[in-house]
Amino acid sequence: MRDLSDIFEPVYLRHEIAEIERRAAMPLMERAGRAVAQFVEERFPGKVLVLAGPGNNGGDAFVCARLLKSWWMNVDLVFTGNAGNLPEDAASAYHAWVDAGGACLKDVPEGKWDLVVDGLFGTGLKRQLAGDYAGLIERINAMDIPVLSIDMPSGVDADTGVVLGHAIRASHTLTFIGLKPGLLTSDGLDHCGVVHHDRLGINPLDLVKPQGWFSNSIILSAIKKRPRNSHKGSFGSVAVIGGSKGMAGAGLLAARAALRLGSGKVFLGTDALEVDLLQPEIMVRDASELIGMGANAIVIGPGLGRSEGAKQLVEAALESANALVLDADALNLIAEHAELQEKLAGRKTVSVLTPHPLEAARLLNIDVLDILEHRVESAKRLCLKFKCHALLKGAGSILAFPDGTWVINGSGNAGLAQAGTGDALSGMIAAFIAQGLDASNAMLCAAYLHGAAAEKLAEEGRGPVGMSASDAIDAARMLLNEWVYRARSCGL
Questions:
Q1: From 136's CA, which of 233, 276, 334, 374 has a CA 20 to 30 Å away?
Q2: Is residue 386 within a helix (H) or strand (E), and if so which, with residue range?
């Protein structure tokens, strides 16, 4: 996969951040604390409650409090640790605060503040929070005032976004050096508020090559404006195999998404209907006919069922030379049958898996909680095990690629928590593959566009509540045309 540094923001795991800090070989605590203090002074002038924890995050909080005090702001500081146990830099920051006349309170006093600065725990926290910390966090969350978290909301795992028992619900998070997965996926999305990024004068790309990236735009350079001298064969063909009786809608949604996102020809292999009356351009065939017909991409699985006949279709698809997008029941069948897993891992052509967490758990033969608590690692494991591309759906979907790199998709909202949206996404990926995008770009473009469509519908008052997969397909088509042709007309 090509270098993404000119398009996306790098994302670093905690051990990579630690390595960057080691290689930078410069004192960073004073810089971090000053960055927080300046953020507070510019946006929240008034009385501030600072929470300083027992580690280096607490050291950042001490620096922040000392500077705010020197700038004549009213500061109360609660210290939850033991001064004698602080790391060296944090201990220096503590003594500088005390020497400046600052007091360390043991508990939150009675009073009113304009802002709480959360410096309890940063990226290093791995243990569950309980007891006094749980009580303090719940008290802060109950206050009706803004909260600024330093680097990470305390209680959110920096690598996974999972809440470790209890976590601060921040209004803003000022994170340092590089973005962390925990800010961008899982529970972190509901706890970090608005994320602000300060590199502290470091270019992390010069120190550690990232494996992870944050996608906050579509890769327009991958999508070509259509020449006027075109025909239906110019934009490829997609075959969708699925939509068994009682689940015809799943196959229809994937096929409609493929058609409306630009595939020149779309076929639907199902025995549940003879024609799509809403979209008669979709050619309905017997499913077995479609595998050998040479479609540029096959979507198999939406509404397919798990019968013996469905298994035979999945097996035939895995043996084909077609690019495959595997979703829903195709994934469940592969998880159930070792021989299908072997065929998938042995394929020489493109395979894209698009599981939700439960399907991913079945494929990896682990508990779904393991998937939810280790989303990035789970997506990477799918790639490694099946030698494929993988898109693990959810809040902050994880896209993992065979070269070991991964991307967190930054678009979307809760409107996508609706039946059928995953079927639509699989059709969109196949449409981009059919039009000539490589699998990586097809996944990146489809995932971002899918989420952006949901955001557009919410802006128009048609979501997130009650938004349907069909709504998202139409919004995605509109956005794609708007972006491609408006950008090209501006010479971008």
A1: 374
A2: helix 375-386
